[in-house]
Amino acid sequence: MTSSSFLQYIIGNTVASPTNLRRQFNLPNLTSGHQKRAQFPSSPPSACLNVHVLQQKKNASGIGAKSKEIMEEDAKVIVGTYARAPLVLSHGKGCKLYDVEGREFLDFTSGIAVNALGHGDPDWVQAVSDQARTLAHVSNIFYTVPMVELAKRLVSSSFADRVFYTNSGTEANEAAIKFARKFQRHTHPDEKNPPTEFIAFSNCFHGRTIGALSLTSKENYRSPFEPLMPGVTFLEYGNSEAARELILSGKVAAVFVEPVQGEGGIYSATKEFLQSLRATCDEAGSLLVYDEVQCGLGRTGYLWAHEAYGVYPDIMTLAKPLAGGLPIGAVLVTERVSSAISPGDHGSTFAGGPLVCQAALTVLDKISSPSFLASVSKKGHDFRELLAKKLGGNQHVKEVRGKGLIIGIELDVQAGPLVDACRNSGMLILTAGKGNIVRLVPPLTISERELETGAEILLKCFPSLD
Fold it and tell me: Which of 188, 341, 458, 466 would staple 194 via disulfide (CB 3.0–4.6 Å)?
């Protein structure tokens, strides 16, 4: 397995078997030619990231002995669903991560847009520590204060009237599917066949459980698990006319759309597209569902990504950054939708526990500050301009796009070599789309200087694409 194959650990284009994992740990091609030279840069990047530390303890593949041992143990006991990067992380601070050998990395992944406050935020740590000592879990058989307080804050800061908690983004979308179908049955009590179908769009990603996977467009995610949930039609993202025609058929329970697509390639909707969906759903009685699992909660410089358009949904799903690294998801709904849901219609053992809700209160309080959101918007604008200036003349760069601190660099080649080169130079980045888009989602707390350093490392590593 070549070094570039490790980009699969994010975009999931292959499912690694234990045999493939063992092969990747040997990394036979990393010792050849330019790859080996790129792994040990002659001088560290300008931020003095410690990628040169403890090189003498690495084996011939360039992986430290301790890291290699842990990866080999992983291959023996972990189900092989991930083709991971050859990196064993031990701790983090702010926007930096460190591996078990002590190397330092500038983190432009945020755990896939999860660690919005970076690593080890002191207020978050204090909230988690205090709540863990007080009460961690009781299930939804009982009430707890953090659950109610977080719901009140989410409602007061959004279009929604009520909240349902889950443990992840895919579970939030599963709940939204169920709520949409129950709503249609509730509003069509005398019809034998109320609307049950769904619309989703090209390049979309809504999760990996069966219902959410059925709404996810990427064929190689779907095909190993077919047959999936029937009744889903995929339309071109942004095609208002096709959506209108199908919605008005009267068969559509709900339309699922990401205001800004993350996994699909950092594509943003237009206001006209969302307005058309809203108007047509209202006309037909279908529900409009926004998936803001990745683009929500400050990532675009707005608290909710759809606020930039002024077009509001009936249901919104959240997850990734909400608890700052702890597992939580949420489904925000209007009172009209909530009125269709009865006790026993859905549930979760762990969702909405006091520990994760208290962590989420801390995250939400920080991110919802107008000054914090303004800083995200400014940093994102300045960073995109800097990237366009530094990389715009590169033959492989087709476009730099995004909103706030969710940024995509579209290339005319696969991004794998660049991912590897950046990692070897002390910077962690992701891919998106079909593997040809660099996805940059750093902590929202990242400094201007760290953004400049990231741009410098990217510029330095672009020759790897040649």
Answer: 188
SS3 content of the chain, % helix, strand, coil (to 5): 40, 15, 40
How far is C-alpha 449 from the geometric centre of its chain's CA atoms? 24
Instruction: Report CA torsion sign: 351, 405, 127, 364.
Output: negative
Residue 363 near residue 116 (C-beta atoms within 8 A): yes
Residue located via tokens 């999860």? 114
Query: What confidence tens digit (pLDDT) does each residue in 132-167 have?
Result: 999 999 999 999 999 999 999 999 999 999 999 999
Place of tokens 């400014």: 378
Structure tokens at 37: 């030279």
Convert the pLDDT of each residue in 346-372 to its tens digit. 999 999 999 999 999 999 999 999 999
Distances (CA, A) of 437 to 99, 402, 451: 26, 12, 18
- Tokens 């953090």 belong to residue: 146
In 3D, which of 14, 436, 438 has the Cα closest to residue 221?
Answer: 14
DSSP string, 139-186: -TTS--HHHHHHHHHHHHTSS-SEEEEESSHHHHHHHHHHHHHHHHHH
Write the single-letter amino acid at 367.
I
Question: What tens digit of pLDDT does each residue of 365-416 get?
Answer: 999 999 999 999 999 999 999 999 999 889 999 999 999 999 999 999 999 9
Residue closest to 333 by CA, chosen among 194, 200, 197, 151: 151
Of 428, 400, 398, 396, residue with least CA distance to 9: 428
Contact between 248 and 255 under an 8 Å Cβ cutoff? The reply is no
How many whole angstroms separate alpha carbon 246 and alpha carbon 250?
8
Strands 197-201 and 252-257: parallel
| 3-state secondary structure at position 21 | helix
At residue 313, the pLDDT reads 98
Q: Put the strands of the sheet holding 89-93 in their side by side order.
A: 89-93, 96-99, 104-107, 427-428
Q: Which residue has the tokens 């975009």?
A: 11
Give per-residue pLDDT as tens, 291-309: 999 999 999 999 999 999 9
Q: What is the pLDDT of residue 28?
A: 38
How many C-beta atoms surround the C-beta of residue 171 within 10 A?
Answer: 26
